[in-house]
Design goal:
- The mean pLDDT is 88.
- This protein is 37% helix and 23% strand.
- With 132 residues, the chain is of the alpha/beta class.
- The protein has a 5-stranded mixed sheet with strand order 1-5-4-2-3.
- It has one domain.
Length: 132
């Protein structure tokens, strides 16, 4: 199964949280935009430096606002409209700092994301493992 087929299968199975380990952020964004059936989904991305970027507007539009890692998940939980994908870039830094809160918040969000056709895609670069 190639990368596009894997993404397509995850979305078809309504897997609301997807974690991809890759440096190829542009490729992921391109593949998401080109997925068969994906044209009905709005696509946005978020990173700590630039905040939200809309890649494809959905219906209804996603209300973007300035968010920090502390306010991001709450904003998504409250304001993410149906039929949207939000790609969170380098969010692993937040996981390292607030693991318990983020894990619980994501678990709480899953039940609401799936029926609304909402997806959070976490992009993390391959992390080097230090040897001692």
């Amino acid at each position: 199964m190639d990368f596009r087929q894997e993404l397509e299968a995850l979305l078809a199975a309504q897997v609301p949280l997807i974690h991809l380990v890759t440096y190829e952020e542009d490729r992921v964004m391109r593949e998401l935009a080109e997925l068969p059936g994906g044209q009905r989904l709005g696509i946005a991305s978020w990173d700590l430096a630039d905040g939200f970027v809309t890649h494809r507007q959905g219906q209804p539009a996603f209300p973007v606002k300035d968010c920090t890692t502390d306010t991001l998940l709450q904003h998504l939980a409250e304001k993410l409209p149906p039929n949207h994908i939000v790609v969170l870039k380098d969010f692993h830094h937040s996981w390292a700092q607030k693991r318990a809160y983020i894990a619980r918040k994501l678990r709480n969000m899953v039940a609401r994301l799936r029926p609304q056709n909402q997806y959070l895609v976490f992009l993390t670069p391959p992390l080097a493992v230090r040897s001692s």
